Amino acid sequence: xxxxxxxxxxxxxxxxxxxxxxxxxxxxxxxxxxxxxxxxxxxxxxxxxxxxxxxxxxxxxxxxxxxxxxxxxxxxxxxxxxxxxxxxxxxxxxxxxxxxxxxxxxxxxxxxxxxxxxxxxxxxxxxxxxxxxxxxxxxxxxxxxxxxxxxxxxxxxxxxxxxxxxxxxxxxxxxxxxxxxxxxxxxxxxxxxxxxxxxxxxxxxxxxxxxxxxxxxxxxxxxxxxxxxxxxxxxxxxxxxxxxxxxxxxxxxxxxxxxxxxxxxxxxxxxxxxxxxxxxxxxxxxxxxxxxxxxxxxxxxxxxxxxxxxxxxxxx
Length: 316
Prior knowledge:
Layout: H1 3-15, H2 19-36, H3 43-68, H4 76-90, H5 95-122, H6 127-145, H7 155-162, H8 167-183, H9 186-196, H10 198-203, H11 208-234, H12 245-255, H13 267-286, H14 291-315
């Protein structure tokens, strides 16, 4: 085996650490969920579960993309809210109107993410400071578009995305396939390399700032799309609906083995982490546990996941 092959497999092993345990826990929790609610094993049940999972899965993918570069995105919740209100005000009834509205939502998210990425990559400002500041700006923009829940999403779009068919699952499969294809391109490889070893990536010809800006732009588009989907679910826009998703996106990514220092983790781990988090929250809700318990559980999950990650690194 060549040195390059050994390095490739070593990197894969590093990025996949702990996934077997995560998937085992996910299967166990899904079995518990099915035991409590056997109706989930039906076309309608799968549709409802995936509709609840889809927004968190998408923002977890967005957060993972940023964290792979060594950054973090605290605008996720505000961007989801902005995507929601933009969708409720811009998406029209006609095919052309709907298409232009959706493109406008995605464009707004990508533009905002690209501007944040530029400030982080070119000005070398801390990602946590830039995204925290931008989260207030984006939240203000969302309130400027709609000061309270309102607007509307055309009924055919709501029915197609949030009806009785598992359309959300199909969309998620398409997103995963798109990620697999993108990850194999030079741009996708550059994002992973920029987070894993920025100096080495730069010396290898990778334009690290461009990779970082691209990661934030794509993440912004994904997050805005999650807001559009939520608007389709509820039939209207809400300037505050994404508030909890910032912490949940980080929780899902960390639960899936994504590290805060870049280059650590996989997209499938983040997706598994997001599904596990959704199942845990739904179980807590149906068991009539108080709302504050969900916040406590998310905090404990982050601490536990990071502790397990550090223990694995020490053992290695």
